[in-house]
């Protein structure tokens, strides 16, 4: 590893390393990753110190979706503390080299001012808000690299750190169960499934791909899927996002509007699809043909079914598995379902797998792919890869995430 030298000696990290440092701070800030958690990848102090002059503009400049004041304060407290510690180290080094005090580095004044403002309860500077949001709503934005502009080209441009990235912004409720539903925040399995799709976009962008998502919740996976389709040259790829009627469907529509995916020409549709009703319709399919859920699935004719964090309630396992089977039966010959689950309770997950088998469905574990932010090749920097769609999920505490590929036997 190459240790960065002092601010004053002119041999510090190169522009692409500084840009990488700025980029990973921005990506994690926008994902609202808790800044004091061990999951937050902070650049070494010496690099952070050299990057600090850009950070106020990078993080709080125009057209940024505002974070909640609480998150902003926590983040700025940690950032300023890290910068202060780096300043102390640099000053010590300069003193030991007998350098004049006038050259000593300081924490950037704009960041300090921003921190004081956040603590005082507001900002005198404008922050972009999204229609229907309140100042304390928490919006997270997750980015991933997309083709079009190479990382090297983007590294030459000082202005836009994430020019070669695509993103989805999502409104998140703080607590796991909010307003009586689990569907108003993004769950770890959803983040991981979205990461898998971003790593293997052809799953959803191949020509004529038709993706039905079960239990879309706040809409992250489906919105990522639709963005991948919009960005690809694939013809007629479509995404159908589904969930229970009511507030979750409203939230999915809000998410699509926030991300510019709500135009009539958009490749994404939102549908009410209750697994209990699908199960009931399947029982009645011999007696009646006004079967809105099954008719919808026949019209959608999926080539891929997605579901994230839908295995948690033992009472719902039967209807869920019947719904997966109904999707596969209505789908194309190659249709498969990718089901990402956080295994919180081995018995519940075991019951799900047993139910798949009992319903004539095969299930195989797929290795979850995980996109990372590429580290610039021209510098040796002692930083771990930053996983995209970062979170504080700890598998040992909260459960391992597993991806199953389910097919008709
Ligand atoms: C834990 S959340 C997961 C949300 C999202 N997939 C994610 O990963 O962030 C479970 C989702 O399943 C939906 N759900 C629960 N029971 C359902 C049912 N009977 N029919 C359809 N969706 C249901 C909930 O509304 C919720 O959106």
UniProtKB/TrEMBL annotation:
Any GO MF annotation of the entry: S-adenosylmethionine-dependent methyltransferase activity
Residues making up the signal peptide according to the UniProt record: none
InterPro entries: Methyltransf_16, SAM-dependent_MTases_sf
Source domain of life: Eukaryota
Entry GO terms, CC: cytoplasm
Protein name (Swiss-Prot/TrEMBL): Uncharacterized protein
Source lineage: Eukaryota, Fungi, Dikarya, Basidiomycota, Ustilaginomycotina
